[in-house]
Amino acid sequence: MAHGLLFILLFSSILSTNHACNQSQSSSLLSFALSLSSPSLNWTSIDCCHWEGITCDLDGWVTHLDLPSRSGFNLKGGVFPSIENLTHLTYLNLSHNSLFGSLESSFFVSLNRLEILDLSSNPFFGELPSFIPSNTRMVNLSNNHFHGAIPSPFFRRARNLTSFSVRNNTFSGSIPSSICLHSSPLIRLLDFSFNEFSSNISAGLGKCAKLQVFRAGYNNLSGSLPEDIYNATQLEEITLPSNAIRGDIKEEIVNLTNLTILDLYLNQFSGMLPMNIGKLSKLKFMLLHSNNLKGSLPPSLVNCTNLEQLNLGSNNLEGNLSMLDFSKLSRLSKLDVVSNHFTGVFPN
């Protein structure tokens, strides 16, 4: 019995030792804490693995730094030099703070095990480095002050990337849809909204076999939609409002049978609505107002029975609205067809 108790105590001691904070990690974290102007972090115990927001592996290396803003706890200051020494980091979340600095190439060279990076809603600035580590699964840099073009090789090593958001920055240049050609086959979300991207959307999105959400609204995009986008059959959302995208909405859009949101308002789309658009039976939001669409509404439209909002206002559409049985759209809460050339009785 005594030997068994001794074994348990020794085993517990070994586990405790393995979890103890590595001294270099403790020093790096304290340097990070000292770089903050406010508020002070309550990191006072000896073992940094027990500090708030810190998780270590069995050898005492810091793997998680999780310090998003909490009520009354908004970090302010610069961060990166000291964090680069946390070379076993796989999870970094500093979102919704007042932290600043730029992402240098050395950051990703040092943190080559990083899987989750969330720096959203801070005043980080500068351009992106030339690559992200191959282990990275999620990058969220939204609501910052990053600028410049996204480097063409940025995604080449990102074989495991599933989510990438740079929403609400001042990025410019072309949207790097080549991500689907050269890197991750796993990408599910791409959000480039509220930036200064220009030019057309280049081909390549169709290679993203698992892509579910593509957002690039409120930019300066032009040209027509790449035809291979209709090959990304897992798409559930296409949100591209307030650009200068032109051309027809191709009949091939009916291949996207998982689509629930189609938001293309305030562009320069022309031509007629696809005749078989009713095959998009999962659609909840169809926002196509303020374009140059023409022709009559296809009868199949009323087969989109999950529609909650249908906005076709401010186009050049025509025809007799009485010919369509809008009562089939029982979930419809908003219908806008104003500023067109329709005739007939307006649906109730």
UniProtKB/TrEMBL annotation:
Domain of life: Eukaryota
Pfam families with a match to the protein in the record: LRR_1, LRR_8, LRRNT_2
UniProt cross-references to InterPro entries, sorted A to Z: DNA_repair-toleration, Leu-rich_rpt, LRR_dom_sf, LRR_N_plant-typ
Domain Leucine-rich repeat-containing N-terminal plant-type: 23-57
Organism: Prunus yedoensis var. nudiflora
Regions crossing the membrane: none
Secreted found in the keyword field: no
Keywords (A to Z) from UniProt: Glycoprotein, Leucine-rich repeat, Membrane, Receptor, Repeat, Signal
PANTHER family: DNA DAMAGE-REPAIR/TOLERATION PROTEIN DRT100, L DOMAIN-LIKE PROTEIN
Localization terms from the record: Membrane
Name of the featured protein: Receptor-like protein 2
Assigned GO CC terms: membrane
Signal sequence annotation: 1-20
